[in-house]
Write a structure and sequence with these properties.
Strand order of the largest sheet of chain B: 1-4
Number of domains of chain A: 3
Subcellular location (chain B): Cell membrane
Keywords (chain B): Cell membrane, Membrane, Transmembrane, Transmembrane helix
Distance between the termini of chain A: 79 Å
Largest interface: A-B, 43 and 30 residues
Membrane topology (chain B): Multi-pass membrane protein
Number of domains of chain B: 1
CATH architecture of chain B: Orthogonal Bundle
CATH class of chain B: Mainly Alpha
Structural class of chain A: alpha/beta
Protein name (chain B): ABC transporter permease
Main location (chain B): membrane
Strand content of chain B: under 5%
CATH topology of chain B: ABC transporter involved in vitamin B12 uptake, BtuC
Oligomer: heterodimer
Radius of gyration of chain A: 25 Å
Shape of chain B: globular
Radius of gyration of chain B: 21 Å
Amino acid sequence: MFDEAPAVTSVLTADHISKSFGSVPVLFSVSMEIHPGEVHALIGENGAGKSTLMKILSGFHAPTSGRILYDGAEVTLPPDGAAETLGIVLIHQELNLAEQMTVEENIFLGRELTSRGMLQSEKMRTLVSGYLRDIGVDISPSARISDLSIAEKQMVEVAKAISRNARVLIMDEPTAVLTEAETELFFRQVERLKAKGVAIVFVSHKLSEVKQIADRVTVLRDGQWIGSQEAETLTPDAMAQMMVGRELSDLYPPMHEADVDAVRVLEVHDLCATDVHNVSFDLRRGEILGFSGLIGAGRTAVFEAICGLAPIVSGQILVDGVETRFENVASARNAGVAYLTKDRKAKGLLLDKKMRPNLTLFSLPKFVRRFGLDVAAEDKALERAIRRFDIRTRDANINVGEMSGGNQQKLLLAKVMESDPRIVIIDEPTRGIDVGTKQQIYHFIAALAAEGVSVVIISSEMPEVIGISHRVVVMREGQVMGVLTGDDINENEIVRYAAGLKRESKG
Amino acid sequence: MSDVTASTDTKVNWMRIDIKTAGPAIALILLCIIGFLLNPAFLSEGNLTNLLTRSAFIGIIAVGATFVITAGGIDLSVGSMAAAIAGVMIIIMNSAMETLGPGLATVLLGCGCSILLGLGAGWINGMLTTKGKIEAFIVTLGTMGIYRSLVTYFADGGTLSLEFAIRGVYRPVYYGSVLGLPTPVWVFIVVAICGWLLMNRTAFGRYCTAIGSNESVAKYSAIKVDRIKTMTYVIQGLCVSLATIIYVPRLGSASSSTGVLWELEAIAAVIIGGTVLKGGYGRIGGTILGALILTTIGNILNFTDLISNYLNGTMQGLIIIIAVWLQRGDWGKAKANKS
């Protein structure tokens, strides 16, 4: 008896799991042990098989071969999220909450407490307050989900998992859309859960975070298990190397010198719009201009107003020295100004369509010949884009929604570049994509600038802004706090401006 | 390498399209076989032309509805719109007879007014949904009531009748035929071809699909969403006016019972044809087949004593539900393969 008991140390184990979709193998004999009370990071490039593995561990997919062990016993997990009743909860990246219902209603959705057919609202409210207190968040149980921030919604998901007595909590990129402060709060909650003995598996592309919070790290590459190691023994660089399988010394491309005498292609004076107050800046030909700041600082709002996506209250916009007001996206596009959204799933791509209609949608007038669409030209454009942007899919005929995030981002980039813009605004160019693809995108942006295209990069990832920008504009609460150049472009300076500790006096 | 994948892709693509298009076509062929077995006269030339002529009204309206639905909208007002347009046409032609006489000019004036009214009514529906930001269901529910009551008001609760002298001139538009096919069938064919080209071969069709698929993406992709959506309602209005032009000479009258439930038949034809009700995927060819299927059911019931003719609505309802159920099954399978 006593000899056997300690042998069961892992709560959930994947034992030589393989998975194929149709004839396409996605996972090759992957093993992973999840211990109670540990934070286990699962990392790998897009398409490495992380999502598939998570779905197998939570019963959403059945493995093609291999075994799942739960508390040391082989099990077949029930499909469609029914594994929650066993204590294995998967929190999807697209949170699964009913927007119009309250926190309390969501947490008890589908297993409401009733007495003689009537809801026991009081009892549920008390319980929900308890759960929320447990993870240390200050949300009212009667708050409507649609009124909460993304971070708070995530907390509700976590509370929901706790209410189901989750023993294994699997999270798909929980921090991808959180600000740094929210991430800190989230990590504190993760620590609490860990202390209660909950095993936490999470996927992240932010390797510094992985280093900070994870106890162990499992790396996948191309569906293969590369290794599981103590997080202490790994540096973020070493993790990146394991993921990519090669040295990543040149994540950021060499920067060519900015030409300070280049013509100003875009000048904005005292722009006012929703969440934008008196914003002024200029953009030179062939320049990469970074926009940094906290989430909600109004960076996206500035460019949505410029591109005709949001109304302008006042201000002056000069394109090539000529005062311009774009009434809609089409007129901005015709003038050579293109905006690439950060929300590729909701605003960027038609997920239920294939690559071709997505690629040409933004520049469709270019493909019209005598009132009809030139499908042959569209096909050629797609072939070109696939080559130029190195878009990899297992089947060129799948819907875009089934492509990996990195490939979707490349397609979105290709879609916008298809209109041959002279000024391109890229909002969060690498959100939720892996290191290898990031590198490709950075090199592509640098090459664009070298060709004379002016690029604006809006990014919440500071190393990225610092790594590729010639100049950096820092915004806070809808205002420009300062413009950094040269050696001033470093994390310290950016943070001080972004946090409002420092502000350039207006000249 | 990319060349190789590209060529196999198109092959797979063709096969997929085949399965999807085949559904309504197979259903129509089955119906025809059943019709023939029940009564060989079903396939007689006379019955077939009759069947095609009858499908023309719903078919033409349904082509317009395909655009509206593909772009994520819905138009419930088409039946009432047809009645109102028919009423106004008759009033205009009757009063123009005194000055223009019962000639071609009067009929052309009537038709011209019909088209203007159709375009205008569609434009109003479109502007209210886009600029007014009211849901299409509500807008067209409202205009449906308005148009219906207008025709009742014009007819003073009774029937508006076209003057006999004009009927003689106008008659061939419904009863006449060119090259052996009745005129309404020709109009149907032309509308169908134009609709197919517009949907599948132009930027406009692609924009409708994009808007129905995801309006935000469309907006960020430099598509003038409001304009395109309004255009779909204008096209719908034009189709209604064309259907009305060929409908009026059939009975030579309009009343509050003209065009009742046409909106539902048109929507049914669109859905049976494989267009997705929530938008983003439209098939004109399917819509044509859908309209033919609906008319064929009624026609077969006329030909046989097996099922009472009064159960026409029941049969149509069953076909709609079965058609959508079959599509669902297909979608579900595709989804399971994906994930």
